[in-house]
Here is the input.
Amino acid sequence: MGAEAAADLDRALRALADENRRTILRVIRSAPRPVGSIAEEVGLSQQTTSHHLGVLRKAGLAVSTREGTRHLFTVNTDGLAAVRSYLDDFWPGKLSALKTVIEARAGENRG
Here is the structure.
């Protein structure tokens, strides 16, 4: 992984570490929403919600578009794909280890 990709991943993981930001992502995953609507649903002030949305945007996890005078926010699935790709790298080794344990136990049960 290159330095830029690693920095992007670090920003995304730091953003996801905050419960409020994870809640905001759940709110905006199905449709674009304005800040006021998001703030009301998550129970935060508009100022606090705007701050969290800024962190999510900088981390590549949310995007905003303009509709008239409103800014609408939605999940950026490309940003989440980088996190998923990173986490997916852990599974082949774990699955291989699980297979080894299962085969060893199966051998014990036969003998």
Observations:
- The beta strands are 33-34, 62-67, 70-75.
- The first helix runs from residue 3 to 16.
- The chain has a mean pLDDT of 90.
